[in-house]
Amino acid sequence: MPTTAPAFADATASDSALRRFLHGLPGVDAVGLEARAASLGTRSVKTTAKAYAIDLAISMIDLTTLEGADTPGKVRALAAKAVNPDPTDRTSPRTAAVCVYPDMAATAAAALAGSGVKVASVATAFPAGRAALGVKLADVRDAVAAGADEIDMVIDRGAFLSGRYLKVYEEILAVKAECGRARLKVIFETGELSTYDNIRRASWLGMLAGADFIKTSTGKVGVNATPANTLLMLEAVRDFRAQTGVQIGVKPAGGIRTTKDAIKFLVLVNETAGEDWLDNHWFRFGASSLLNDLLMQRQKLSTGRYSGPDYVTVD
Description:
Structural class: alpha/beta
Order of helices and strands: HHHEHEHEHEHHEHEHEHEH
């Protein structure tokens, strides 16, 4: 994928040009955005459609462990769960990926070899992003060399919020170049961007710089993925493809814990971006506890009863 869509080459020619472009995007009607997200969240999904939605959601999960206490054993256990989420039901789909810190990427890659489940690795001094560019790029190189198929980077929110858009753009370009074959997810940390207008600007900035996915958050702050901020990002990828022909994925992360929540997000995808995004190549959930609830709801649909708390493993 080209680093900048040809239709927008002039927009990234200089810092002032990029600022003009981003501040020239239509302003976000916050009340309207939140009302639409809330309205779509009331859609009822039943029976066979619900069963389809549950399996789709499972297949879209980046099963995640990003803790200081992570061990190789925990990562291997998470990989086993990603490949075989429900040991009592081999019809359960696999998750999309396992997401870990760079030093655990090799362990995850070995455990997932041949399974089709991707290895995702956070990088660029996740979650704060407070490091020199050389350190961030080394972080990416290490993760890719260890077997990461996908890199989840964080933008420099300080630079973005102070209007240094070209710095953020060039950093994304540099990270993208280090990714090689790996797909790049660009994390905005929407809870720190303050306004919906900033989320829209960050979305376009990430896409112009070559992101394969735009991602809401790290899951490490108070406000993470919400229906409203995800709806806004879905509108951005829809509009970007309409103008460039380039499709970009979306990944809400943090705070999505229940089947009901996941289905609301799938409705947002279908009604905003369209069916082309209803695939784990283009939409992901950054989650850990969500999988357990999806599995219990899946069993409820197939057996008519809820499982006990020991039905699923504790991540």
